[in-house]
Design goal:
Blueprint: H1 2-13, H2 44-49, H3 53-66, H4 70-86, H5 90-95, H6 107-122, H7 126-138, H8 148-164, H9 168-184, H10 188-207
Helix pairs in contact: 1-8, 1-10, 3-4, 4-6, 6-7, 6-8, 7-8, 8-9, 9-10
Amino acid sequence: HITIFIFTISVIFLFSACVSKHSVAKITESPQASKAPEVSPPNAVELEKKQKYTEALKQYNLLIGTAENRHDLYAAMRGKARCLRAMGRLKLALGSLSPLPVKPETPLDCLQLAMAGELFLQMHKYKEAESSLEVALDGVRGKEKKYSAWSATASANLGNAYLRNGKLEQSRIMYRKAAELYRHLNRPELEKKCLRTILALGQIQVEE
């Protein structure tokens, strides 16, 4: 029962397969010059949306090299990681987020760790995923709704990691938190998936 259930959850909740619009950080660039628009680089996020990942990677690399603050730097790093993930290059995607903060000092650090945890999950490195996601969510404890655009998914991913590591009760707790955050985001379809997962986890515990 547990094996079948885990497979089902991986299909439902592996966030890396479909990134929501809430988690795509917008990276602004200088306005294009009216006389020579061809000189200005195309918007990296727009290229990514069009699935032109090779072109988007070049622009994200440019943005990484010219970022003037941590917010822009981290946004470009995550954009690069998303493109590499979409191309199936998971190890490179994870490496593009390095160096990861050991002790996050800001919500931006936590967001980096949340994405790293998501990548670990997709790479089937469940212990690393659990550790990274725990640290990420601990960094915004009590402020999850403020950062619900990504903490909802991080909570669901941590629930998945706990499930993979055999921690069923902790998994239920995280899926319950994820459901609350998805409700806050007005994402009823994802809230319902969390609630169905909680019910299924309860059935497994009864059978055991």
